[in-house]
Amino acid sequence: xxxxxxxxxxxxxxxxxxxxxxxxxxxxxxxxxxxxxxxxxxxxxxxxxxxxxxxxxxxxxxxxxxxxxxxxxxxxxxxxxxxxxxxxxxxxxxxxxxxxxxxxxxxxxxxxxxxxxxxxxxxxxxxxxxxxxxxxxxxxxxxxxxxxxxxxxxxxxxxxxxxxxxxxxxxxxxxxxxxxxxxxxxxxxxxxxxxxxxxxxxxxxxxxxxxxxxxxxxxxxxxxxxxxxxxxxxxxxxxxxxxxxxxxxxxxxxxxxxxxxxxxxxxxxxxxxxxxxxxxxxxxxxxxxxxxxxxxxxxxxxxxxxxxxxxxxxxxxxxxxxxxxxxxxxxxxxxxxxxxxxxxxxxxxxxxxxxxxxxxxxxxxxxxxxxxxxxxxxxxxxxxxxxxxxxxxxxxxxxxxxxxxxxxxxxxxxxxxxxxxxxxxxxxxxxxxxxxxxxxxxxxxxxxxxxxxxxxxxxxxxxxxxxxxxxxxxxxxxxxxxxxxxxxxxxxxxxxxxxxxxxxxxxxxxxxxxxxxxxxxxxxxxxxxxxxxxxxxxxxxxxxxxxxxxxxxxxxxxxxxxxxxxxxxxxxxxxxxxxxxxxxxxxxxxxxxxxxxxxxxxxxxxxxxxxxxxxxxxxxxxxxxxxxxxxxxxxxxxxxxxxxxxxxxxxxxxxxxxxxxxxxxxxxxxxxxxxxxxxxxxxxxxxxxxxxxxxxxxxxxxxxxxxxxxxxxxxxxxxxxxxxxxxxxxxxxxxxxxxxxxxxxxxxxxxxxxxxxxxxxxxxxxxxxxxxxxxxxxxxxxxxxxxxxxxxxxxxxxxxxxxxxxxxxxxxxxx
Length: 815
Known about the structure:
By secondary structure, the protein is of the alpha/beta class. The chain is built from 28 helices and 14 strands.
């Protein structure tokens, strides 16, 4: 019996059934059960035959509707039928034959309305509800005005039985409904709680993952910015000194080598830029910077980058450049060169024999604009049609096994496509697998000079055949201040402007810059961004509020080796007058000077200084072999061995002083007060060592610098004694420089005092070149031990641009 009850309960009220069906079953089965009980009771007690017949019909309808809803999936029709039969058929008849208002019909009418609310929706609900209300009101109105239509029950017992029966059945039905709804609510509440807990946990996990991703992105950005600075600084030196070789060499072979160095340096910059650019694109920081450019110059740079590699593979370069392309246009020529270089480099890499064809032509667009189209074709390995889309995905390389010997990170085409999208264009690809490919794109450019370029190949030969350089102006009365903590960078800057005869004062820090601009007016200031202590931006802001600043209104140009998107706009927003990216391009430097230097200070001339410079070249010094020094590396930083030799001698003279400074800061490292001074000092030793080619010692100093930066005292304690020992060893090895010539003893001490007075005047005039020359003249003699020690200390102050300390040392010597 119990088993059958459980099966019945599961069949009609199971948890897997739809909620609407369970509600329908509760209402109809309870009503049907009430009818089954009522029919025999009415027959036994001789109640109205009409009522009994109507209840019997209603019970049959309930059974039919229960069957249709549960077995035939006709739930909606069954709900409407039950509501219609009960509200319109059964309840009105029951009202008039069971005593009207003096019966249990209030309960039945109430349950009928509940049925309608629980079972119907939409217009069905509205219609049945209004109909039921109208019938109920009609029944009571008729019974009120025509009580003769109402048939009273025969006895008092019948009235009581009808009332109790009506109350119980309707209460059980409504109670069952409420109970079921409660169980549904509890179930949903528990499920919602579980879902909320899961959602909360997933939300916390997502926030944690987002935070980790942001931290990783920030770390990557910081790493790339630092990497950019660290790598671009030596490239700046290589390209700068190579530029000086191109300016001054008279040997054709050397000039060809120098041009190859220039090409290789630009390729190295391109590789670095690929890594930085994809990061900037991912972070949305890549920007298109519009500017005027010469088409011939741009194409010369592009072809110069790839011609050497094509020749190495015996590939023919075919040029088909339309003669009617405008000479000068407005666009982002840096990005256009990057796009062309990426495409042509890929063509060279994947072509083993045959040719590379480079075509360009223009068609007039709207007024003042031209549509510039480039097509690059090759006879390479081609691309499968299904692989064309994949080639634009980051770090995606096609047919890795087949192309495993071809270098590349799989970033070039991704960057190319993104750059073209930013220019409002797209890269078109046509390829036949095994035969070759054609890449093309069209960009709209504004015309600045409509004059056509003419015969492209003839003009290209003129540009390539003879590399001539000379400054287009001289400015002997102009005074520049260059602020950079890296001595090597300052030397490159001074060398690039040597032919212009500009008076250049050097400063190694932001504090020194502030001191100099209080003492003297400068016509232009070039300020490096990344410096220890007060950086370039902080120095620039301090200049604006500096009391006694004699350089208010002086153009200040920002220098940086960090390749960051939007850098120029940020510097200009900060207030800088201009921006130069390292490595410094001589033409851009000169253009910056012509733009901002007052016209009366510029003296223009024809570019004929190159031959004169070559005639005046001095005899090269032969550098001695010294363990731990790579002179070839040092020569990358200087135009000739003479300057390397003199710098090495200065380094030798400074070793003992630098060693003592490091030791003094190291002794106070435990308290943390001298940690920053220690870091700056080993940073200086690192730069000086690398400059003369002592890269091993420079690397050791770099480890000490990083340990100080990270506050790793234990590591500093391990590394510093090794660094001090290596400095002593290096000084011993470099004794050969000091013993090259025996210094004569200065006979008349008055000569020393005279030279010291000259040195003092040079320092006060901030004439760095004169100070260096005078100090070198003093150090060509030997002196008594006490004086010699003081002069060695003075020499260190001069080398380190420590003017105040140098003046104090001179006063001490003159006593």
